[in-house]
Design a protein that fits this description.
With 187 residues, the protein is of the alpha/beta class. It is 34% helix and 18% strand. α3 packs across α4.
Length: 187
């Protein structure tokens, strides 16, 4: 997973609330477990409508309750594969929010007025280290769990966190093989 610190660039605007993961990536595209190749199917049904245009900018600003519905991991995968690095919204579905942070896609919760200002500005900067979003004419702070923040700053997914303990795991397994203290014996 790529480390995140500062995300800057144009903002894509999806001015809709209650966007369900089924709308983000429809069920017919969930036949693979690889994390790549889903961007082309992002908002598949909406993308067929005349006038649809959602540029692949680094930042997506959207309405409240983004990522609601089923807990499919493919939705954040599709958003990341499309090119988004941060999503700014007034609220997210909990499981969706967590699935984003597990792959290095930064979900940022801001008050609705600030999200609207980001949409209107068309360009923004998301500073994870400082926990600030800036746009022309304003800025706002956001909250993030300290452990999640650390993992994102260091680019650590769950496997990366485990691999950081590889030496300790190797010692444990070696002791266990020798029948040392790590082995549980039945009487």
């Amino acid at each position: 997973m790529k480390a995140i610190n500062l995300i800057e660039g144009d903002v894509s605007v999806l001015d809709r609330s209650d966007v369900d993961t089924d709308q983000i990536i429809p069920k017919q595209f969930l036949k693979r477990v690889e994390r790549t190749g889903f961007g082309e199917f992002l908002f598949y049904d909406w993308a067929k409508q005349p006038g649809w245009d959602l540029p692949a900018n680094p930042i997506l600003a959207t309405g409240r309750n983004f990522g609601s519905g089923s807990s499919r991991e493919h939705a954040p995968w599709a958003l990341e594969d499309y090119g988004f690095e941060a999503i700014v919204a007034p609220s997210f579905a909990d499981i969706f929010f967590n699935n984003c942070t597990k792959i290095g896609l930064l979900p940022v919760v801001l008050p609705e007025a600030d999200v609207r200002a980001v949409m209107a500005a068309g360009r923004a900067s998301v500073d994870l280290a400082a926990q600030r979003v800036s746009w022309e004419g304003g800025e706002a702070g956001f909250e993030i769990d300290p452990e999640t923040k650390r993992r994102l700053l260091e680019g650590l997914d769950d496997i990366g966190v485990t691999l950081r303990q590889a030496e300790a795991i190797d010692r444990y397994e070696a002791e266990r093989e020798r029948g040392g203290p790590a082995t549980t014996r039945l009487a």
